[in-house]
Design goal:
The complex is a heterodimer of chains A (278) and B (55). Chain A contains eleven helices and no strands. With 278 residues, chain A is mainly alpha-helical. Chain B contains two helices and no strands. Chain B is mainly alpha-helical. The chains are: A mainly alpha (278), B mainly alpha (55).
Chain lengths: 278, 55
């Protein structure tokens, strides 16, 4: 059963169609959850005993930090699947992760610095947690840079996949940096033995934000992956069908009726006027 | 409201953090949608060329 599922998602038309349909189901919850978490977290949480209202930065810092690492894991797994099974869809997903992951890492570092200044007295310290997170940003940027160095997408996929897989060593280092070394950064406070170390009224908005960030990631990733798949698929019939389907276009309104007329089989009549509209 | 904006004296740290996050997340939405729209446009063009060659 698992293999049927696996093979289905390996099929570009299937993935493209499912991604298109799923996107709004992630996009709207993402908006609602993030808004709720942000308003609740920034507006209605009691001040921390030590950090006053400054701790509210953590409502964006924590979800961003989770995602920065999780996106990397998704990217590396997708890259490995693409490399091992030569699956174009997996490579498309991996390539779509990089900008998103780098963005979450930038948010993590930026908000962390803005939190560190009042709490630690410095924007930056060469602390294990901070340094390994900075390394993650460089790995993302290296991945993006490596990809852009190739004209051939298939070669870019293979080379960047190797980099993504090797870079995975940084993930446990980030996760356990606060445990292994005597870090300035506080230890894990949500997932830890003995339950969360955060009081409930402060915890719920964090959880809303984390789920909201996951939904945001899914929606943007699926949109990007569709673009990547279209770039990889050349002259396939399903693209013609898909682009002709109503509601399939993003930011390119109009013209789909003409496309439907133009691409439905070799016998379909078409006029120069239709080409003009495309 | 003023109290909310002042963030208990942490306003200079909290609001830039929020702004940075919103800007970066919004940019990613714009980039992803633009990349998809471009890919769709290119695919349409390729299909038109392929169709013409087939005829």
């Amino acid at each position: 059963m698992a293999w049927v599922w696996f093979h289905r998602f390996g099929s570009a038309p299937y993935f493209y169609r499912v991604a298109r349909r799923l996107t709004p189901w992630f996009a709207w919850p993402a908006l609602v959850l993030c808004l709720a978490g942000l308003v609740w977290g920034l507006g209605f949480t009691p001040p921390d005993a030590h950090q006053g209202y400054g701790f509210r930065i953590l409502y964006i810092h924590v979800p961003a930090a989770w995602l920065s690492v999780q996106v990397y894991v998704v990217m590396a797994v997708a890259a490995a699947v693409g490399l091992i099974w030569r699956m174009k869809v997996a490579h498309a997903v991996a390539a779509s992760c990089a900008t998103l992951g780098a963005s979450f890492t930038v948010i993590t570092l930026g908000t962390g610095m803005l939190w560190g200044k009042p709490m630690w007295g410095t924007y930056w310290a060469w602390d294990p947690r901070l340094t390994s997170e900075l390394l993650l940003l460089f790995i993302y940027l290296g991945y993006i840079g490596l990809r852009s160095g190739f004209d051939d997408t298939a070669r870019a996929d293979r080379a960047s996949a190797v980099l993504a897989i090797v870079g995975v060593v940084d993930v446990p280092i980030i996760n356990y940096s606060v445990v292994w070394w005597n870090s300035l950064h506080q230890g894990p406070s949500i997932i830890r033995a003995g339950g969360p170390a955060i009081a409930e009224p402060m915890l719920i908005p964090v959880l809303l934000m984390i789920v909201g960030f996951y939904c945001y990631f899914a929606a943007v990733l699926l949109t990007r992956a569709r673009g990547e798949i279209l770039r990889r698929e050349r002259n396939a019939q399903w693209i013609a069908d898909e682009l002709a389907a109503p509601g399939s276009s993003v930011g390119s309104g109009g013209g789909s009726g003409a496309i439907a007329g133009t691409f439905q089989g070799a016998t379909a009549p078409h006029s120069p006027a239709e080409h003009g509209r495309i | 409201m003023t109290q909310f904006l002042r963030m208990g004296g942490y306003a200079v740290y909290v609001w830039p953090a929020v702004a940075l996050t919103l800007i970066v997340l919004s940019l990613n939405i714009v980039w992803a949608r633009r990349a998809l729209a471009l890919a769709q446009r290119d695919a349409r063009r390729r299909l038109v060329i392929g169709r013409r060659e087939a005829v």
